[in-house]
Design goal:
The chain has two domains: 15-150, Immunoglobulin-like; 169-313, no CATH class. Helix content is 5%, strand content 39%. It has two helices and 25 strands. It has helices spanning 130-136, 142-150; strands at 15-19, 21-24, 35-41, 47-54, 60-61, 69-73, 78-84, 91-94, 105-107, 174-177, 184-190, 193-198, 201-204, 208-214, 221-227, 230-232, 241-243, 248-253, 256-261, 263-269, 276-281, 287-291, 294-297, 304-305, 312-313. It has a four-stranded antiparallel β-sheet, with helices on one face. It has a four-stranded antiparallel β-sheet with strand order 10-11-12-13, with no helix packed on it. It has a four-stranded antiparallel β-sheet with strand order 14-15-18-19, with no helix packed on it. It is elongated, with a radius of gyration of 26 Å.
């Protein structure tokens, strides 16, 4: 969400301005590692300089021990501030008509999938300004490029499906999009085989793709699919097919395959993609949960994972208890 704020007028002199700010969450906790991007522009909106820094452990910008953050200043110029962090809503503050903002504080809320950030209308990376474009391409701005990519609408992605893919209603191709819009997958069928195209990478989905899930930042993915063998139900007259015992479900998380299960479901990721989990039923109908590849059995469905990915809890259910 982008907010606009103006503050009391302060005389603006040519030279440099020192930038200081604080980045917190709604509970007053610092957001270390959050980025602060600042553009300096004239009253007609022409940007002539920019700076960037990461917040320190206390949410302070610049981080403790780092050099002062200074930006070129011109008489009557304005600064536009953008605070952003993975998994958070970005927040922008703009100066108008030379009215300066002294040491702004930013409150970054958790991102919500139903309320995406507005498109960011920033001039970075300055394709029409060679001098600023050269500065923007320097290694010290690599973190800025990574953060801005999280909030930039993706370019159009085009998938070329095999000419013999199935077009019937039952197997029509399905599209899956990550929450931030940076990753796209297409599940489709060719004959009796199913496949998933994830950002151009083809994943074998065996006989049926049940689910494709992305981490909120779009960098990690998971696919639940079925390897199925069928046979006719016994009887005098032909009857519908039934699954044989050697049919199974597998889960593929970034190329690491888990299985073979009777069923699998509720695949999920933390915002940074470093922690994943899913539930499954084994051949004896016992419920398990897998967290980062480690298998836990005898559990109920209320998995909870802390935001740093280091802590999680779930409820065990003893045999015979409802």
């Amino acid at each position: 969400m982008i907010l606009l704020m103006t503050m009391a007028a302060v005389s603006a002199q040519a030279g440099t301005r020192e930038i200081r700010a604080t980045i917190l969450d709604p509970y007053g906790h610092p957001v270390p590692g959050a980025g602060l991007y600042v553009e300096a522009s004239t009253n007609d909106g022409a940007v002539y300089d920019f700076v960037f820094a990461l917040a320190g452990q206390n949410g302070e910008v610049p981080a403790s021990g780092r050099p002062p953050l200074k930006i070129n200043s011109r008489r009557g110029s304005n600064l536009s501030y953008l605070a952003l962090a993975p998994g958070k809503e970005c927040l922008a503050i703009h100066e108008f008509y030379g009215r300066q903002i002294a040491e702004p504080s930013f409150i970054l809320r958790d991102a919500h999938p139903d309320y995406p950030n507005e498109d960011l209308k920033w001039q970075y990376p300055f394709r029409d300004k060679p001098e600023l474009a050269n500065k923007a391409a320097q290694p010290e701005y690599a973190e800025l490029r990574k953060l801005l990519a999280l909030f930039t609408p993706p370019r159009e992605k085009v998938f070329e499906l095999p000419k013999d893919y199935i077009k019937t209603d039952g197997w029509r191709p399905r599209i899956f999009i990550s929450r931030d819009g940076t990753s796209v997958a297409c599940a489709y069928a060719v004959g009796d085989r199913h496949f998933v195209n994830i950002n151009g990478r083809i994943i074998d989905g065996k006989n049926y793709v049940s689910e494709v899930v992305f981490s909120p930042d779009g960098r990690k993915w998971g696919v639940i699919y079925l390897k199925e063998k069928m046979k006719l139900r016994p009887g005098i007259y032909p009857r519908p097919h039934m699954r044989e015992k050697d049919s199974y479900v597998e889960v593929n998380v970034n190329g690491e395959i888990f299985g073979k299960y009777q069923s699998a479901y509720n695949l999920g990721f933390l915002p940074d993609g470093k922690t994943f989990w899913f539930f499954y039923l084994d051949r004896e109908d016992k419920k398990h949960v897998v967290v980062n590849g480690k298998d836990y059995s005898g559990i109920a469905n209320d998995l909870r994972v802390e935001n740093d990915g280091a802590l999680f809890h779930f409820t065990y259910r003893k045999a015979g208890m409802l």
